[in-house]
């Protein structure tokens, strides 16, 4: 486009075009990345964490529950606070679903023998009108059981919803 | 007259509020009943009874009072042009526009979430759509009435000011939605591009950000075009509210661009110096840069855009109060930039002094690269900002303004306070060394003295510079114009219908030195 023609353009249309490009880029990048994402590999600690969080956000309580170690939900020495029955867990997963769910990224995964730690970054829209987001890092611990890797740390589902 | 107007428009406003609340909730309750299980029947009946009552009272009362107000406005132009009527109209317009923007944003977020699979509540979507339609319908109707009034009887003085408060308030809100939304969308896109494989769930961040951006575009776009059309464009060009809105946007854009640029530079410098997690960010530096990078791009563009708009306004005719707002903005940015530059320079010297003195004293040197990156960034960002906004010797009409004096005294005050505090610490440490007090054996006193000296150096340099400018301004200030010489003219005034006492009382207000003679005229 010649500069002269650009100068004659209504400036509001430049903003409209910019917003349209940004909106298309956002939708395209989201769809593109989602279509190329592999299914979570449940034989690895990262895969188990991915499967757990995806199940929580999709409201699939049974699938998420199956990835928790019994250590995470039963009382034991040194453990305090309320623990879950499967029904409690199901109620939390299905009852707390929010329209603006969190975005979750895996930051790192480390393994030592039969235990592992996966760090995830959970980004929430703060709920204000200006879409300000706040991020926090959560460390999820796992241990290797007969059925494979299972989550042993705090299983409260609301932190990923 | 005024009492009747007050009564009519207060009742119309209250009953309109009742009508909107009633209609909105009746619609959402009905939609709930239609789209959800019939087990909520009792609740639906309660809600219909309550909101039905509010609607049935609000609707006739509003219709009656608004019809009377419209009839009076049609018959009497002064009624139609009254400030009270405009206040009612623009208050209703502002309230319905803000409420509609908030609800529409929710509607867009839910709609996009439904398309992208992060939201599944179709009934909630229908409820939000109903409330949006209702608010938009009432907003549009009142806008038409306000426009018809303006076309019929014009709009000057208080009425025009009320319209500007509405227009520029909504313009500002819309722009805030647009910019913050666009910043968030760009950040989400960049994170997906550089770290998409690590993102295990997308959540609703992209729909929420897109909804904010698109709502802002609608709100800002409408009011921008509305105020850009004649005759509003010519009416508003010299308005203080228009300039204040522009400079508020400019100040916000400049501040956010600077914060973003500082973060960007700091992360890059610190990583270049070998710091793995500057400011606690994760391993993926590109993902960490997405936030500040988006801020710089979006608010930097807003900065350029707003500056161009303000320059165009000022180029046509810059009114005195508009020029005052511009100067206030320029000096405020210069002061903030100076503070950033001073903290950066003092921090760099502080870090350097720590390194040198700790090495000389054989003490643990500690980590310096993270701090050096941060302070270097502040100095690098603050210096060009200060240089572009500060003029040491501007033209005469800019030189003796209140905002410049405020800037100079604030800079001097900051320097002197920093000098006082750091000077006291330096003296305390030097005296401690001379007197060999208990806390001087470890070498910490020498390091502390070095830190204080760093702050003193910067404070003295900036304090001296601004003090000299204050003196130069005082010397260059033109002498106040001398009193105009008393006119040598003589006047003859003929007064009828007043007695001598009354005339003498009236003439008692003449300046000292003036004389008069009263001679009764004989008919």
If you had to describe this structure to a student in words, what would you say it looks like?
The complex is a heterodimer of chains A (161) and B (523). Chain A is elongated and about 65 Å long. In chain A, a hairpin with a 7-residue loop joins strand 2 (115-125) and strand 3. Chain A has helices spanning 3-7, 11-35, 45-57, 61-65, 70-73, 86-95, and strands at residues 103-112, 115-125, 133-145, 148-151. With 161 residues, chain A is of the alpha+beta class. Chain A is 39% helix and 24% strand. In chain A, strands 1-2-3-4 form a four-stranded antiparallel beta sheet, with helices on one face. The model of chain A is unreliable at 1-8 (pLDDT under 50). By secondary structure, chain B is an all-alpha fold. Chain B contains 16 helices and one strand. Chain B starts with a helix and ends in a 16-residue tail after the last helix. Chains A and B meet through helix 2, helix 3, strand 1 and strand 2 of A and helix 4, helix 6, strand 1 and helix 7 of B. Strand 1 of chain A pairs antiparallel with strand 1 (199-201) of chain B, so a sheet runs across the interface.
């Amino acid at each position: 486009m010649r500069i002269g023609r650009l100068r004659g353009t209504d400036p509001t249309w430049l903003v409209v075009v910019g917003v349209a490009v940004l909106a298309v880029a956002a939708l395209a990048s989201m769809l593109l990345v989602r279509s190329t994402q592999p299914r979570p590999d449940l034989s690895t600690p990262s895969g188990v964490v991915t499967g757990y969080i995806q199940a929580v956000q999709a409201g699939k309580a049974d699938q998420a529950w199956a990835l928790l170690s019994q250590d995470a939900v039963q009382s034991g020495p040194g453990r305090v606070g309320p623990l879950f029955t499967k029904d409690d867990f199901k109620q939390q997963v299905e009852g707390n679903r929010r329209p603006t769910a969190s975005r979750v990224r895996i930051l790192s995964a480390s393994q030592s023998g039969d235990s592992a730690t996966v760090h995830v970054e959970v980004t929430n829209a703060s709920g204000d009108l200006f879409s300000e987001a706040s991020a926090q890092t959560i460390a999820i611990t796992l241990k290797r059981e007969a059925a494979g890797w299972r989550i042993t740390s705090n299983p409260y589902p609301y932190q990923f919803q | 007259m005024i009492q009747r107007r007050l009564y009519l428009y207060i009742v119309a406003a209250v009953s309109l509020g009742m009508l909107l609340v009633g209609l909105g909730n009746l619609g959402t309750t009905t939609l709930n009943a239609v789209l959800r299980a019939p087990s909520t029947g009792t609740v639906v009946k309660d809600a219909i009874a309550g909101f039905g009552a509010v609607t049935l009272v609000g609707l006739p009362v509003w219709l009656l009072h608004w019809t009377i107000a419209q009839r009076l406005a049609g018959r009497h132009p002064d009624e139609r042009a009254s400030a009270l009527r405009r206040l009612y109209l623009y208050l209703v317009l502002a309230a319905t526009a803000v409420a509609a923007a908030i609800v529409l944003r929710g509607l867009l977020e839910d709609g996009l979430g439904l398309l992208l699979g992060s939201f599944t509540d179709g009934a909630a979507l229908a409820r939000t759509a109903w409330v949006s339609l209702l608010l938009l319908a009432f907003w549009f109707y009142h806008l038409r009435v306000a426009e018809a009034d303006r076309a019929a009887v014009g709009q000057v003085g208080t009425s025009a000011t009320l319209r500007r408060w509405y227009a520029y308030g909504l313009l500002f809100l819309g722009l805030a939605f647009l910019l913050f939304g666009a910043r968030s969308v760009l950040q989400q896109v960049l994170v997906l591009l550089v770290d998409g494989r690590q993102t295990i769930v997308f959540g609703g961040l992209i729909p929420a950000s897109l909804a904010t951006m698109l709502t802002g575009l609608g709100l800002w776009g409408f009011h921008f075009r509305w105020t850009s059309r004649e005759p509003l464009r010519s009416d508003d060009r010299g308005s203080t509210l228009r300039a204040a809105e522009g400079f508020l946007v400019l100040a916000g854009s400049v501040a956010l661009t600077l914060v973003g640029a500082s973060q960007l530079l700091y992360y890059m410098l610190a990583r270049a110096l070998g710091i793995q997690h500057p400011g606690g960010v994760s391993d993926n530096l590109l993902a960490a840069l997405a936030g500040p990078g988006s801020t710089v791009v979006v608010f930097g563009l807003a900065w350029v855009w707003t500056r161009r708009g303000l320059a165009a306004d000022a180029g046509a005719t810059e009114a005195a109060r508009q020029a005052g707002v511009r100067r206030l903005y320029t000096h405020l940015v210069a002061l903030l930039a100076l503070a950033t530059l001073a903290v950066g320079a003092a921090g760099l010297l502080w870090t350097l002094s720590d390194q040198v003195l700790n090495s000389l004293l054989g003490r643990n040197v500690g980590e310096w690269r993270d701090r050096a990156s941060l302070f270097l960034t502040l100095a690098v960002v603050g210096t060009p900002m200060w240089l572009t906004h500060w003029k040491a010797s501007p033209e005469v009409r800019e030189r003796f303004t209140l905002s410049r004096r405020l800037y100079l005294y604030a800079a001097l005050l900051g320097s002197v306070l920093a000098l006082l505090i750091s000077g006291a610490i330096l003296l305390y440490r030097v005296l401690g060394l001379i007197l060999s007090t208990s806390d001087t054996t470890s070498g910490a006193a020498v390091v502390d003295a070095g830190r204080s000296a760093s702050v003193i150096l910067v404070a003295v340099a900036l304090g001296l510079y601004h003090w000299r400018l204050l003196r130069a301004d005082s010397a260059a200030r033109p002498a106040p114009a001398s009193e105009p010489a008393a006119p040598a003219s003589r006047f003859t005034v003929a007064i009828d219908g007043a007695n001598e006492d009354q005339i003498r009382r009236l003439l008692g207000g003449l300046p000292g030195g003036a004389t008069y003679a009263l001679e009764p005229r004989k008919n």
